[in-house]
Amino acid sequence: MLIVNKLIPRGAGLAAPLLARAAEVALGWDTRQKSRFDAIDSTGRALGVFLPRGSSVRGGDVLVAVDGSLIRVQAAPQAVMIVEAAPGRGTPFDLARAAYHLGNRHVQLELQPDHLKLEPDHVLAEMLAQIGLSVREAMAPFEPESGAYAAQGGHSHGHGHSQGHGHDHGHSHGHRHGHEHVHGPGCGHAHA
To answer: Gene Ontology terms, cellular component aspect (predicted)?
Structure first.
């Protein structure tokens, strides 16, 4: 098994001839959101991918094996729901409403100018149809948003914090008198 332990987002800085010669691996989102997984590349090599915890792999990224070989990642088509404004009766605002409601449910969501994409869920499909949106199933690559607190470039290398989730870091932030600690930009400290 060939060990892979480095990720180059979008192959940044690599020469086109190097990328053209690289092997490829097509992976669905369920695999690409993990930092540790096994895969088989286009040359038949078994890969053991061991990236830093919290990493996710996007279509177009390049994996680097310990022997220096490069593997271009393709987002494999998978079952998705495509949500669009209903022809003749819907508006683009309906998509914004849908994104709001789906975000409140922490649904992984790919945003496009004219549609939303999410993993199939019949309950969510019914809710979206009630809002007045068109929902259809398809096989397509899925690249959900990485979230407001993810690292630049669409790659997450840590974990974000959101309301309603208790995180015990095992350290004190020096807060007294019942003041709640707020995480996010400008909170005054880094998170591993």
So the answer is: cytoplasm
pTM, entire model: 0.72
Q: Are residues 135 and 106 in the same domain?
A: yes
Judgement on whether residues 85 and 131 belong to the same structural domain of the protein = yes
The encoded tokens of residue 2 equal 């060939």
CATH value at residue 108? 3.30.70.790
Where in the sequence is the domain holding 85, given as residue range(s)? 78-140
Does position 101 have pLDDT exceeding 80, yes or no?
yes
Give per-residue pLDDT as tens, 33-74.
999 999 999 999 999 999 999 999 999 999 999 999 999 999
CATH number, position 30: 2.60.260.20
Angstrom distance (rounded) from CA 98 to CA 84 = 10
Q: Per the structure block, which two tokens stand in for 176?
A: 């007294």
Convert the pLDDT of each residue in 130-144 to its tens digit. 988 999 999 999 999
User: Token pair of 181, please?
Assistant: 């600690």
